[in-house]
Structures are given as C-alpha cells and as structure tokens.
Amino acid sequence: MPPDFNAIAVFALVAEKKSFRAAADRMGVTRSAVSQTIRRLEETVGIALVSRTTRSVALTEAGERLYAEAAPALLAMKGAMEAAANLRGRPRGRLTLAVSSIAESFLSGPLLASFLGENPDVTMHITVTDEEFDMVAEGYDAGVRLGEVIAQDMIALPVSGEQRQLAVASPGYIEQFGTPRHPSELASHRCIGWRRAASLAPYRWEFEENGREYSVAVAETITTTDMALMIKLAVAGAGISFGMEDSFRPAIERGELVPVLEEFCPRFPGFFLYYPSRRNMAPKLRALVEHLRGLRPVVG
Questions:
Q1: Cα angle 242, 243, 244; round to 5
Q2: Do residues 60 and 105 lie in contact, with contact meaning Cβ atoms separated by under 8 Å?
Q3: What does the pLDDT average to over 281-296?
Q4: Where are the domains of the chain?
Q5: pLDDT category, 88, cuts 50, 70, 90?
Q6: How many angstroms separate the CA atoms of 19 and 7, rounded?
Q7: What is the pLDDT of residue 176?
Q8: In a 3-state reduction of DSSP, which class is residue 43?
Q9: What CATH code is assigned to 163-268?
Q10: I need a labelling partner for 97 at 20 to 30 A (CA). Which of 33, 178, 210, 229 fits?
C-alpha cells in the first residue's frame, strides 16, 4: 500500500502540538477526524504511534522514530512548495527555448536583450535547432518556428512579419553565367543548397506561379547544414542559393548578392513563439509572451 502522506502530515502536527484538539484546530477539522486519521495510519504501519490519555498525548517509540524521520522531509516539502509558489509572482528562473536557426528577427539580439533587461531574475537557455522533436517531452518552455510547421494544438504568437524565400546570386556569378528567368532554368545553373543532415535529402526550392505552388529539386553543386556558409559561398560566386530573405538581406543591402526569380517567390506567415496550452503558465513564460505582445507593432 502506498504511503498516505496526508496522514503522515497530520501525525506530525499531532506530535508537534502534543494534542489532537490543537492539531484539529490548526487544520480546521474535528478532533474525531484527526483521531481517525491517526488510527488509519497506525493500522497501515501495524504498530501504535501515539499513546492517548484523557489529559495528554505522547509518542510511542515507533512514533518517535517516525516523527524523527518524517518531520525533516515534511519541512523540505513545505519549503519546495513555497519555492514553487513564489514563482507565481515576479518572473524568475531559467527559460528554455528551442529556436529555428533561420528566425533572424528573433535571434538578432535586441528583442531578447530588452526582455532580459525588463526581467533581471530570468535567465535563458536557447537551443538553435532545426530538428523536429517533441518540445514538451524534451523539457522546453517554448519554441520559435515558422507558423506552417507548428502543431495545431499549440498556442502561437507571431514574432515576425511576413516572410519569403529568395533565390540569390552574386553579381559576379550573374555576369559569368547569366540570370535565370524561370525556376525551370535552375537545372542548368550551379546551386548551393541546404539539408538538415548529410543522410537526408536536400531541401526543395519552393516557388509559386499563377497562384500554384510547386517545388523544384535542383542539382546542388554543394549542400550544407549551415546557412552562414551558404551565404559566404553565394557571395564568393559559387552559385545560386535559396533561403529566407532576412538571412540574405545584409548581403543584398551591401550589393554582394542580387535576388533572382523574385516574381516566383511568394510571401507567407512568418515566425511564431509557440507553447503548450497551460492553465497555470509560469511567470517567466508569461513575461516573455507579454513582452512580445508589447512589441507586436514592431515584429508583426
């Protein structure tokens, strides 16, 4: 039979007060209820724990032993409960997030820095990953991904504006090999692609034409798991690359890369903070949600 922790707590209070009535008054129950609880506990352990007279209550040897062992544990449990309850107030503790490597606006720095500035008792651990996994089972508080890949049973809050994927190339590559006018022409170009792992197929390049979405499996000259390397290779003239516009924007603004096939690159909903539906959300996560909502005119 599993231990009755409630009964042990009642027994410890009786031992502390040395009175059934005082324990009952402290708990807001009848003396009879306390007596019955102690009797059930004694039946469970198979030995008397309390010696009762009309004037006093004393612990038996077994009762003394149980109280000596149980009291520190009960005190520790009370402290743990109080520590947990304290988290209802001011946000504190470590907030763990799993964030897509291409969520540029979220990972750029200012958004996270401003949140931590407003919540000095919160620390963060951010895993930058594009792996697919069960966020809850892995112990994350929340994640940031493109809205189209977030499960329907999650709560999602936008953390960026609309996004689009672009094909880009360096001016030097375009001068040497020309500009593709249609996605079908990519087959004759050198391409730099992305794949999540060497054992997996490369990511297919997605376009839209006359309202119809389709993907193109290009023959990449090189593939990598690192977006930063894709950009460096494209800037160096190694070929045409394809990815999130936000990732390419700094190089585009510097004139190191030029968008191609823009008319075939539609916009779509961007990145979202997502987390499970919880009735009692931890203050640290609630603080992040409220911070992001306050920034929605900026990121939305």
A1: 145
A2: no
A3: 86
A4: 5-86, 93-162+269-299, 163-268
A5: low
A6: 15
A7: 96
A8: helix
A9: 3.40.190.10
A10: 229
By three-state DSSP, how is residue 51 classified? strand
CATH code of domain 5-86: 1.10.10.10
89-139, pLDDT tens digit by residue?
688 889 999 999 888 888 888 889 999 999 999 999 999 988 887 787 788
Which residue, among 118, 94, 95, 135, has the nearest Cα to 295 in the 3D structure? Answer: 118
Asked if 112 contacts 81 with a C-beta cutoff of 8 angstroms, the reply is no
Q: Give tens-digit pLDDT for 59-69.
A: 888 888 988 88
Q: Which residues are within 8 A (CB) of 167 and not within 5 positions of it... i.e. 6 or more apart?
A: 180, 186, 205, 240, 241, 242, 259, 260, 261, 265
Q: How many residues does the chain have?
A: 300
- Closest to 41 measured CA to CA, from 90, 2, 98: 2
DSSP H helices in the chain:
5-17, 20-27, 31-45, 61-86, 104-107, 110-118, 171-177, 227-235, 245-253, 283-294, 296-299
Q: Which CATH class is domain 93-162+269-299?
A: alpha beta
Q: Report d(CA 139, CA 298) in Å as an integer.
A: 30
Which amino acid does the sequence have at 44?
A: T
Side chain identity at 126, as an amino acid letter? I
Distance CA 169, CA 33 (A): 80
77, 6 contact by CB (below 8 A): no
Would 5-86 and 93-162+269-299 be classified into the same CATH topology?
Answer: no
- The whole-angstrom distance between residue 163's C-alpha and the CA centroid of its chain comes to 22
Q: Measuring CA to CA, which residue among 286, 300, 297, 298 is closest to residue 119?
A: 286
Q: What global pTM score does this model have?
A: 0.61
